[in-house]
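Ligand-bound model needed. adenosine-5'-diphosphate.
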Amino acid sequence: MKVGIYPGSFDPVTFGHLDIIERSAKIVDELVVGVLNNSAKNSLFSLEERVSMIKEMTAHIPNVRVGCFEGLLVDYMKEINATIIIRGLRAVTDFEYELQIAQANGVQNSEIETIFLTSSLNYSYLSSTIVKEFASYGGDISKFVPEQFIDRIYAKYNITR
Ligand code: ADP
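Prediction:
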């Protein structure tokens, strides 16, 4: 059984992430969306909030589950028997960093393969940062995240619709 991991901060999860999740779930037998619990990185949403939003968004995909990890991705992968890392590539600017990380992970464990999915044209501009930037000014984020997340995101900026 091929277990893949799609790691990230998902602060918050967007339609761009969902697109990668839906497509990669067709490639691996089981996909674990791995939410990074990075205490040094100031996240807008708590780990629990990020996990629950991803669960809501992926409830329709049977072979997807959500996990969280701290520390090295390769160590977490051993724990859950995952051998495939899924990453999304939006623009060429993503590439340099992603290549370096993929090679470093491969050196750590030669069983690990990283698969890059190019983002769909519809979402190549979309990042969690863009969502937060628009939301912080009360901008329209309905094309970025599902309707049921909008109030939760605005609430972080004390904005009501
Ligand atoms: P973000 O850059 O959105 O803050 P994360 O750390 O949560 O992202 O990203 C996790 C993974 O999802 C990364 O591989 C990133 O390149 C990918 N990703 C994020 N947004 C998109 C998108 N719109 N299309 C394709 N891949 C994406």
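Residues 8-10, 16-17, 20, 87-88, 90, 94, 119, 123, 126-129 surround adenosine-5'-diphosphate (CB under 6 Å).
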